[in-house]
Amino acid sequence: MVGIIIWLIIGGICGWLASLIMRTDAQQGVILNIVVGVVGAVIANLLFNRESINGSPLDISSFLWSLLGAIVLLAIVNLIRRGTVR
Q: How open is the CA angle 66-68-48, to the nearest 5 degrees?
């Protein structure tokens, strides 16, 4: 149960920071920030073969890799929706 709560909290923070970096913060709410953060952590784990939010122990490098995965996810979404990464 605690692992799911950590996924949601860290995922929300990663998604929120990624949306600020990619300038999409006004378009998404809290739930979408959490989804972007968690999916971004999974993408980082797949692309970069790094531990994501689920890594034990949770440290700054796994947080930064998850943030990078969330940024990649938002860049792909922007590319599909607008034709530009921003």
A: 80
Predicted confidence (pLDDT) at residue 5 exceeds the cutoff of 70: yes
CB atoms within 10 A of CB 13: 17
Beta-carbon contacts of residue 30 (< 8 Å; ≥ 6 apart): 12
- One-letter identity of residue 44: A
Which domain, by its residues, includes 13? Answer: 2-82
Distance CA 27, CA 70 (A): 15
Into how many domains does the chain fold? 1
Q: How far apart are the first and last CA of the chain?
A: 38
Q: How far apart are CA 3 and CA 29, in angstroms?
A: 23
pTM of the model: 0.80
